[in-house]
Amino acid sequence: MVPGNQTQFTELILLGFSETPEQQGPLFGLFFGMYLIAVIGNLLIILIIGSDSHLHTPMYFFLSNLSFVDFCLVSTLVPKMLVNTLTQNKAIPYADCLAQMYFFMVFVGLDNFLLTVMAYDRFVAICHPLRYATIMSPRLCALLVLLSWILSLLYSLLHCLMVARLSFCDHEIQHFFCDLDQVLKLSCSDTLINYILIYIIAGLLGIIPLTGILFSYSKICSSILKVSSAGGKYKAFSTCGSHISVVSLFYGTGLGVYFSSSVTQSSWKSTLASTMYTVVTPMLNPFIYSLRNKDIKDALRRLISRITSSP
After folding, report:
1. Is residue 272 in a domain?
2. What CATH number did the domain enclosing 110 receive?
3. Are 131 and 151 in contact (CB under 8 A)?
4. Beta carbons within 8 Å of 178's beta carbon, 6+ residues apart
5. pLDDT tens-digit profile of 84-105?
6. Global confidence as pTM
7. Backbone phi, psi, residue 93, to 5°
């Protein structure tokens, strides 16, 4: 692409959902409510797991990390959107936009990796129960989480460095946050390398983890079907139910955003679809794990009991 009228903007504009002033109040109330629910729910999950020794197991160690990542994800995106809505100032400094883009990719990548690790944990627990404690040692759990962080930090940094070299012909982002794809659309530089990098990384760090999750659950289902008693089957399925729900929600909404942006030219519809996995999914995850998980509910009762009984 031949550059035309290139410049380097010091500020970009996040158009968000609506430019109509009368819609700003309801939008602010809606997203402020969802943000509070997401923050309180995820921090509560972390508190419950951290304060109850019965939950100091690999499964809940990964869950607490997932809740922390979800808390960071919504905190990366929603506060800036709320401030822009409240002040009617939709500008974001270019450096802040790059930072928001970087941390967004970091935390979405971590969600992806942690869900894969949690699927592997359930695979070992159900398919190799006698070796579970040996395989899922504290050292391995810590290494898996550390590796997830390293991969997410590195690939996000690579994307942002590739964006930082570009020049821009426009400064209005058709979104409520600095999404990589939307920022690339503003560039009048050649973005072919950027898109090649996106497809390569999406293939390696997106499709491979999803394939790992599907493989793990195919083995889990095969093992569960071999259990003779109905009670044993129910117990095995119940330990995976919450994770399956979260995986379906995360990948379902993520794929929904991809396909909606591919088949529609409406930036509003694409922005609305993006809220599903950036805001709604982190908000619902604590409820999915707490409502479907007896251990979490029992730990919450013990926590409330300790708080109310303390002088």
Report:
1. yes
2. 1.20.1070.10
3. no
4. 12, 14, 92, 97, 98, 100, 101, 104
5. 888 888 889 999 999 999 999 9
6. 0.90
7. -55, 145
